[in-house]
Design a protein that fits this description.
Elements (H helix, E strand, L loop, with lengths): L12 E4 L2 E4 H5 L3 E6 L6 H12 L1 H6 L2 E7 L3 H15 L7 E3 L4 H5 L14 E6 L5 E7 L7 H16 L2 E2 L10 E3 L5 H7 L5 E4 L2 E4 L5
Parallel strand pairs: 3-4, 4-5
Antiparallel strand pairs: 1-2, 3-6, 6-7, 8-9, 9-11, 10-11
The structure holds benzoic acid.
Length: 211
């Protein structure tokens, strides 16, 4: 079954490079990013997992924990981490699940047989502190992900979880945001004391409220 936005992220227990853990317990009160990569000792994956490691503090600043998965073994992940450290400057510093039996991969629908029959594609599941799936991304094997984009969507998701706002096209942290059309002008004056400008009744912009 496809996991959809708003679903509870299915819990599981798995062996990882940091020992056996359960997803929900590992995440605790944090936000989480569960992501898959196709295979250890492959070029694009090496750059991606190294950059996820390099940016760990940026994820932590957003109260977000990382956890990766592929159908390789934990032993393979550990050996590969040395290559990642050597070539990218940062080895694994978050748990990587060894999913040879494909339990997690199948639970999350990470194997897309028409793309790759035997391995996970590049999926991303952003999970909120309530354990609900907030955002998903799926990339093919030959396109590496963009860590800045993951941080950007975390900023957007976290902002809109605190205020009645949405983020416009190409928004980045610090830029104006859109007031929800469900908020009346009178309520908007109270909720957004920095003011707002009305381009259309359904398109009102306000400075980012938490800055
Ligand atoms: C890569 O990471 O470069 C890769 C992995 C699996 C298939 C193709 C490319």
């Amino acid at each position: 079954m496809t996991i959809q936005l708003g679903d509870t992220a299915p819990d599981f227990t798995a062996e990882t490079t940091e020992g056996r853990l359960s997803l929900h317990e590992y995440l605790g009160e944090s936000w989480g990013i569960l992501f898959s990569h196709p295979a250890d000792f492959t070029p694009v994956c090496t750059t991606e997992l190294g950059d996820f490691a390099r940016r760990k503090d940026d994820f932590a600043a957003r109260n977000t924990k990382l956890i990766g998965v592929s159908v390789d073994s934990v032993e393979s992940h550990r050996g590969w981490s040395a290559d990642i450290a050597e070539t990218q400057g940062h080895g694994l510093n978050y748990p990587l699940i060894g999913d040879e039996a494909r339990a997690v991969a199948n639970l999350y629908g990470m194997i897309h047989p028409k793309a790759i029959e035997t391995a996970t594609v590049r999926t991303v599941f952003v999970i909120g502190p309530d354990k609900k799936v907030k955002l998903t991304l799926t990339y093919p094997a030959n396109v590496g992900r963009n860590v800045d984009e993951l941080l950007r969507v975390l900023d957007a998701l976290q902002l809109s979880s605190q205020y009645a706002v949405s983020t416009p096209v190409n928004w980045t942290d610090g830029e104006d945001v859109i007031i929800s059309p469900a908020v009346s002008d009178d309520d908007a004056k109270e909720q957004f004391p920095k003011g707002f400008r009305t381009l259309k009744p359904y398109l009102r912009l306000t400075p980012q409220p938490n800055r």
